[in-house]
Amino acid sequence: MELVLVIGRGGREHALAWKLAQSSRVQRVWVAPGNGGTALAGGKIANVPLPESDFAGLIAFARQNGVTLTVVGPEAPLAEGIVDAFQAAGLRCFGPSRAAAQIEASKAFAKDFMARHGIPTARYAIFTDFDAALAHLRRVDYPVVIKASGLAAGTGVIVPDTPDDAEAALRQIMVAREFGAAGDQVVIEERLEGQEASVLAFCDGRTVAVMPAAQDHKRVFDGDQGPNTGGMGAYAPAPLVTPQLLEEVRRTVLQPAVDGLAAEGAPYVGVLYAGLMIAPSRSPLTVRGSSLHVLEFNCRFGDPETQAILPLLESDLVEVVEACLDGRLAEADVRWRQGSAATVVAASEGYPGPYPKGREVAGVAEAEALPGVAVFHAGTRLTEDGRLVTDGGRVLAVTGVGDDLTTALARAYAAIERIRFQGMHYRRDIGAKAIVG
Ligand code: AMP
Ligand code: GLY
User: Fold this and answer.
1) How far apart are the first and last CA of the chain?
2) Which of 112, 163, 315, 351 has a CB 3.0–4.6 Å from the CB of 393, allowing a cystine?
3) What pLDDT is stored for residue 96 in this prediction?
4) Does some domain include residue 151?
5) Which residues of the chain have pLDDT under 50?
């Protein structure tokens, strides 16, 4: 029997714990530190009060409790080498090594890596010197996107509307150092047009098994208005990514990335996430040959994509993860169910700006009682006297599953309407583009 430890505290980690606990091979799932949802889940799932950054504490816990498998959710501990630390302690841990996690932790590394291996991505240049970056900005004749190279909790990308805004963004990162050391290197790249999609894959260092494509909704308000967030909702599979396109992503993006990392001595084991821009027209006449470009790689499951993807996984997640760790993913059975899933995020008042915490959350049990619904907690906490309160900007990810996207969305929205907390807001148009299209 497996004793599993999941590291992280968001909706993604609740979904991972939920799916892992469904395995008949799993006896226990601890979540460190977890949230109100993993505290309330009961059954095999329980929280451990250790933060993601406490590698020594997590390793000691794993040893003392006979943990047989650890699954890491967020990028920060991966980029800091948590998998290397667990392996050095003789523990099995699912995720990329520190070296392989560079594909997310350094956008400069990722861009040069893609160039070395012929993976389609926007034209770019990398700078450490402000004057050189400014000169480049004034020279290029195309609109740009400006990126702090390091990890900045999803906030380090600026898409300026005018050349003046682009210069301001550069100053913000390189002079005011708003993102600290994450802005030591800056990537200036060509701004691409199109629709975004996320394609995630299980990887064992050699083989990739793609998951159904998903679409995230990054802006806070309906119609993609307002500031960027960590993600306000997602659905899968995304019809934009046809089966042929999914195969093209595997062949031209994910497989070359895994092959390239192996060839460079950093074999990639874990989930590799490609954030893609798909040109408006998939016509063969699209500029420079490819209408598919990588915007970024992430070294982990997406949040909230995972809350819409894992409910579609028919296979046992533990078996898939074990196959990755053993380098036998090619023989593993990774099956997906027919149908769709959609997740809608309920956010705190003011999010993505400053928001209050500690507001009482009601209606979760009623929502969960509806057919085809799972409520994953993102930012909640169970108080000592047993009340469920808000504890983050994204509070809940409410997932509906059904035979088609319309049904999945209807279920997610029927469920979220049962839930209440003061100041709660959510987008009403998750998946709407896919339905109209
Ligand atoms: P990233 O973290 O690199 O995916 O960037 C965050 C967001 O910025 C993406 O989801 C896109 O919406 C936008 N973005 C990044 N790179 C580009 C680009 N080259 N062209 C247009 N939008 C981009
Ligand atoms: N949903 C975007 C991410 O996980 O990075």
Assistant:
1) 46
2) 351
3) 98
4) yes
5) 283-289, 437
Q: Which residues constitute the domain of residue 296?
A: 195-331
Verify that 349 and 326 share a domain, yes or no: no
| Model pLDDT for residues 156-170, shown as the tens digit of each residue | 888 888 888 888 888
**Of 306, 379, 373, 308, which is closest to residue 343 (Cα–Cα)?**
308
Q: Does residue 156's CB lie within 6 angstroms of at least one atom of ligand 2?
A: no
Report the DSSP pairing between strands 233-236 and 215-216: antiparallel
Report which ligand 1 atom has the smallest distance to the Cα of 190.
19
Ligand 2 in reach of 391 Cβ (< 6 A): no
Distance from the alpha carbon of residue 258 to the mean position of ligand 2, in angstroms: 20
Q: Rounded mean pLDDT of the chain?
A: 94
Tally of domains in the chain: 4
Domain harbouring 152, CATH code? 3.30.1490.20
**So what's the pLDDT on residue 290?**
53
Distance 401 CA to ligand 2 centre (A): 20
- CATH number, domain of 251, equals 3.30.470.20
Q: Residue whose CA is closest, atom 3 of ligand 1?
A: 296
At 78, which CATH number? 3.40.50.20
Task: State pLDDT tens for residues 310-329.
Answer: 999 999 999 999 999 999 99
Whose alpha carbon is nearest atom 5 of ligand 2?
A: 302
Nearest CA to ligand 2 atom 4: 302
Answer yes or no: do 165 and 239 share one domain: no
> How much is the pLDDT for 282?
55
Query: Cα 351 to chain center, whole Å?
Result: 19
* DSSP codes of every residue in 331-377: GS---B-SSEEEEEEEE-TTTTS------B-B-HHHHHTSTTEEEEE
In a domain, residue 67? The reply is yes
Predicted local distance difference test score (pLDDT) of residue 135: 87
Instruction: Name which of 30, 17, 427 is nearest 233 in CA terms.
Output: 427
For 20-38, what is each residue's pLDDT tens digit?
999 999 999 999 999 999 9
Domain-terminating residue out of 162, 184, 206: 184
Find the ligand nearest to 298 CA: 2
Query: pTM of this prediction?
Result: 0.95
Residues 200 and 322 in one domain: yes
